[in-house]
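Q: My collaborator sent me two sequences in one message, no labels, and asked for predicted structures for both. Can we handle them in order? The first one she listed is below.
A: Yes, handling them in the order given. First sequence, followed by its structure tokens:
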Amino acid sequence: MSASLRLGRVWGVPVRVHWSFWLVVLWAAGEGFRWGGGWRGSVFAAGAVLLLFVCVALHELGHALAARGLRVEVRGITLLPIGGLAQIEGLSQTGWRELVIALAGPAVNFVLALVLGDLFLALWGPSLVEGFFRSPDTVLAGILRSIFNGANLIALMAYLTTANLLLAVLNLIPAFPMDGGRVLRALLSLALPFHTATRIAARTGQGLALLSIVPFLLPNSPFQSPAGVMVAVLVFLGATLEDRLAQRRRRLAARRVGEVAFARQMTVVSVGERLGTAMERVLGAPRHDLPVLSAGRLVGVLRRDDLLRAIQRGEGDAPVESVMRTAYPTVQMGDTLQQVQHLMTTTGFATLPVLDGESLVGVIHLQTVQQMQKE
């Protein structure tokens, strides 16, 4: 069972929501009731959180549409309790592309803040803005009280305006996993190798995370906050992970299929062979799918799951060609392991035939690629 529920497509981009997201909505509804708003406050507060996540989804959609405009593959958007995630595959290690994609998300929030802010000022007037600059904590506390009490739509508009400004500004902090970390890496990669730019951006993010954690821990500090400490830790870990991923990609990009110990001694089946006989071969090679040959030429791939389903249906006497895949990815001896990993990720094949020209010379497994990442 998937942990995410698919909501639909927006401009062709699949949008999903993680099951844990609804816990945030329930928390907001409970807070609205607890603050004295009753059922009206519960509904209003839950609605405010849902609208906030609509803004988060639009932020991620900005990334996704910018990526598609640059012909970078987008797998979808997933909404999580801590924000959103645009799943962008195969992002080219080209500075200007990453720069455009990274800036697109905060740009959406700036536009939303501008539109909502204009409406808010038209309805409430500039007096509240003047009060905000004199005492921002008092004004923000009043806005939140109004939200949880289910008071009025003007307070909701003020809340969404402020939230979009914060989403834009905080995401531009030059620290992974925020967009600002990617902006910094993109700018650095215009003059430096991608992995070097990533390391500098990651170290910058780690340093900012360590500095920001201090006021959250100091005794008698007005900024003491367990949530603040947790955010700083997540930023530090996010920067560390990004650096590790970049170094792994670098190792894979430096190795070619012909240089690694791919499986030259492989199990194959012929196109006219019975599925029952092929099943015996699969049991002897349970880790991977089987290449299908006809007159010594590769003509398909017999996936282990397809074979098992056919056997369960009682089709053991049927020929291999009845269930083999005729559309399948292959790799050449000169391809990099990074290209192999990308093919495996995007196609779902954990075993790929290795060709030398048009001749089958072996297969390469996902486990081999994963091992090369660590070396």
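Q: And the one she listed second?
A: Here it is, processed independently of the first:
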Amino acid sequence: MWDDTSPHWGNYSVLNICGVYIPIIYWKQVYSHSPNGGGSAWKPKQWQSIKNNYSKWKLLVAQFRKGTPDDFWSEFKDKDGNNMKYTAINQCLREIQAQEDSALATRARSEYHDTFADHFSYKKGGIMYVKTKDKDIAKQYRCLISIADCGDDGDDSDD
């Protein structure tokens, strides 16, 4: 259900447009871009309501694809040795991500010390702000050192 390049794709999704099932990976594009190339998004309010779940699934799928299914499930067992449920897995992944983001943000602050504001800022309402959230700093740092795709992932969290 995540994308149509996966062997797990069953040609089914809850999002169906004119008989075509749309994999989750494309939902942000579908919901937040104009269908005719114009200025307004097709379903912006609907995207706002589903983007949190989209981000959770994206994180889970990225972890699942790092190795084999057996690798994934061996990492996500509960105290009784059973496979963890979606919510518990996601909580673990969010905690891991927060720790990684914190470490990368600390590294970025140290590495770019004097020029930090030049590299880690954003514009809002015509005013420049320096990023303060570890998550946002880490995302930018990953792009700067080329360890991640810098495309928009639907997780708009600038300060």
